[in-house]
Amino acid sequence: MTLMKNRVWTGIIFLILMPLWAWAAEYDTGVQSRVILQAETMSNGEPIDYLDADRPQVTVMTVDIAPGASTGWHSHPMPVYAYVMAGQLTVEIEGGKTAEFKEGDAIIEVVKLKHNGTNHGKVPVKLVVFYLGAKDVSNVIRADRP
């Protein structure tokens, strides 16, 4: 399990530093890069939490949320990261915090806390979501409102 955590940390560090290397590498004309987000905390301000798994599995998917729609209260047993391709999303988090995200924002979702994302806007919210999970472990756990 320690080996898994080391692999996760190595992967995360690579993903975080990769844009910095691209910027510093002085690529040919026409190639640009920028760091979207670099953080040590989840969207509620707590330190990032990682899943310890014997059979890791990464799932990447798109999520579209229609105007006026919500994800429903749920939680994640593993780290989840997202990028907002379009729209604005309001996330209510167990414990009373609220986080706002807009097009171009990166999201470090809360782990093991109930939350609900709502599109209060007039255009669909479009997300690319990365689940750093494990085989046979559900990425999303439905929950009642806290």
Structural class: alpha+beta
User: Rg from C-alpha positions?
Assistant: 16 Å
Q: What order do the helices and strands follow?
A: HEEEEEEEEE
Largest sheet: 4 strands, antiparallel
SS strand fraction: 25-35%
Strand order of the largest sheet: 1-8-3-6
- Uncertain regions: pLDDT < 50 for 5+ in a row? 20-24
Number of helices: 1
Gap from first CA to last CA: 31 Å
CATH superfamily of the domain at 41-142: Jelly Rolls
Output the CATH topology of the domain at 41-142. Answer: Jelly Rolls
Which word captures the global form?
globular
How much helix is in the residues?
Answer: 10-25%
What value does the average pLDDT take?
84
CATH class of the domain at 41-142: Mainly Beta
Number of strands: 9
CATH architecture of the domain at 41-142: Sandwich
Task: Kindly list the characteristics that best describe this protein.
Jelly Rolls, alpha+beta, 16% helix, 146 residues, three-stranded antiparallel sheet
Structural summary, described in words:
It is globular, with a radius of gyration of 16 Å. The model is unreliable at 20-24 (pLDDT under 50). By secondary structure, the chain is of the alpha+beta class. The protein has a domain at 41-142: Jelly Rolls (Sandwich), CATH 2.60.120. The strands form 3 sheets. It has a 4-stranded antiparallel β-sheet with strand order 1-8-3-6, with no helix packed on it. A 3-stranded antiparallel β-sheet has the order 5-4-7, with no helix packed on it. Strands 2-9 form a two-stranded antiparallel sheet. The two termini are 31 Å apart. 16% of the residues lie in helices and 34% in strands.
